[in-house]
Task: structure prediction
Amino acid sequence: MTESLDGSLDERIVAALCRDGRADVRAVAEAVGSVPTTVQERLESLESRGAIRGYTARIDYEALDYRTAVVRLAVDLADIEAVTTRLRETSAFVTVYETSGPFTVFAVGKFEDEAAIGACLRELHADPNVDGVDCSVASTVRDGGCPLPEG
Result:
């Protein structure tokens, strides 16, 4: 079972890191109204529980001329695990979800150009485990937001 955040301090720490994942412990402590030693302890706890899995650069794919494709797949329930595993192993897909409804797999991919999107779609249409494909090319309106309120 996944543990929830431990009270409002953990939520404020995670929210501060959502806004600036490169902030050091002192900056996070100042942002959340705590002291660095307490924040460091809470970060270690969040990391050990897997709530924080690492710190990473935030990439602006549009600045690199990449296209974002939102792909919905109709997949039989018995085949979802195999299809989502293949998508997660495909470098273009940055996010893969299992969902309910007629489209049981939802994925977001970042592609170099329309030809790369087309090649991917042809593969998906040819996949015997995929019963239907729906794709939209999207422009980023908001990316990397944090659902937690600011401290």
In short: Residues 36-49 form the longest helix (14 residues). Strands lie at 67-75, 93-98, 105-111, 130-138. The helical segments are 7-19, 25-32, 36-49, 80-88, 114-126. The longest strand covers residues 67-75.
